[in-house]
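Consider the following input, taken from an annotated entry for Phosphatidic acid phosphatase type 2/haloperoxidase domain-containing protein (Magnetospirillum moscoviense).
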Amino acid sequence: MRWLNAWWGSMERHPWMWTLAALAPLVLFPQIDLTVASWFYVPARDIFPARSAPFPEWIRKSMPVLLFAVAGIVAVAWLAGEAMRRTFLGVSRRVAAFLLLSLALGPGLVVNVILKDNWGRPRPSTLIEFGGQSTYVRPLMISDQCDDNCSFTSGHGALGFWPLAFALLAPPAWRPIAIAASVAFGAVVGLVRIAQGGHFLSDVAFSAVITIGLILWLYRRLLGDSSKNHRQ
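Applying the prediction step yields:
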């Protein structure tokens, strides 16, 4: 528990240091992306086997639906509270704004609208190295090899890290465990998409930084560290 508190405290105090440490190697050394992707590709069969495996496919198809359903429940609880003029199911006006804005701005606007549909980065499964016709593009380089819903960044990865917003609302005694569990969940979702040839490691890493960064910024702006704000 103590090491979790120390790790999270370091992330909050030095966000740029952690961001640089996570992303710089992936930008400077493109072979990392290609090497990690190759771990999940079977040349003899010319496939990423996880692309058709039941559990990874369940995560790819069902995880977004489940998380959007959770967002819907948050919205309904907030509206019910507004109608009753009191907090309903613990979802105050500030909490609802925090949860819904972190979803809309991170996985929604930045990742899916601004980046995925405009960056043009081809997915691993479309590369020459993995049986396709496209060439590898570094994560920060705009390309014309993909028209829309492209590889940079990972939409599933961004969604997978969104539960961190709920973890920050956990009671202080449980918050470190909740944070660790939410980050682990996002990492698993990202790993599934990498294993399926849908995204590079760098796609998932950038999605994690974008989503976590926006969540922390919104938390400080809307809720801060005072628990009394959660009831407003």
